[in-house]
User: What shape does this take?
Amino acid sequence: MIRWLTDLHLDHAPPEAIQRLHAALRSNASVPVILTGDISTASRLVEDLERLADAAEAAIYFVLGNHDHYGASVGTVRDQVLALNARRPEIAWLPPAGVVTLAPGTALVGVDGWADGRHGNPMTTPLVLNDDKFIRELAEQSSRAGRLAVRRALADADATRLATLLSRARESGAERILVATHVPPFPSALAAGQRIAHPHWHPLLISGATGEVLDAFARQHPEIHLDVHAGHSHAAAAVTIHPNLTVRVGGARYGRPTIQPESG
Ligand SMILES: [Fe+2]
Assistant: This one.
C-alpha cells in the first residue's frame, strides 16, 4: 500500500547509489511514498525530492529530519518545501497536508518531531549532534540550556500539531492511523543492545513530547490502531507500546539509500 524510506542522506550517497534507488522506485511506480526525514540537506533538498517524485511517479509524503535543515534555518526550509508543494502538489510535507486517506479506514498523518531531552539528562550527556552547528536556530544559541529550549519549543509545537491531526483522523473515521515522524517517540524504540540504547543518547534520539501525545491518544481510543514509522537512529526496531500502538524505526546506512524492506 505504501513504500517507506527513511534517512536516505542523499548528500552522502554516490551517484550510482542514487540511480539504484531511483530504479527501485520506478520498478514499483504509482504506490505512495512516505519519507520519514533526513532526505539530504537544505541546499539540495528540493531537487532531491523532485527527483524522487519523478522516479516514483506517485505522491510523496514526507516529514523533515534534523539533517534536512543543515546549512539553513528551520524557517527557511519550511518555506522551501511549502513553495515546492505549491509548484508540485504531489510532493507534500505532511504537517500542513493534514489527514491523508491511504485506503478506506486508513489515514496518514505526520510531523517532523525533534529530540527534546525529556528522556535521559540533556544537561549532562557527553554527546552532541552537529545540529548545534549547522541549524541556524540552534547555532545562534550560546548555551546548552538555550539550545535545549529551542529544541523543546520545536518538539512541543510538533506534538501539539500531531494531537490535532490525530483527532481529525479519528473524526474522519480512520480505524488505522499511520503516523510518520522522524524522531522515535519512545526509548524502547531504540534497538536494544546497541550503543544508541545507552541513556546518554536518549536526550538526542527521542521526542518525549511526541511520545506523550501518542500514548494518550492510544489509551483514549483503543479501537484505533496507531502504526508509527520513524527514523533518526538508523537502527531498525519494531516495538509494541500498547496493543493498539506500534512503532517501527527504519534501518539506514550512509551511502546506501534504500526502500525499507517491510514496506509493501
Ligand atoms: Fe539520519
About this structure: Residues 3-249 form a domain with the Purple Acid Phosphatase; chain A, domain 2 fold (CATH 3.60.21.10). The chain is about 35% helix and 20% strand. The CA atoms of residues 65 and 187 lie 18 Å apart.
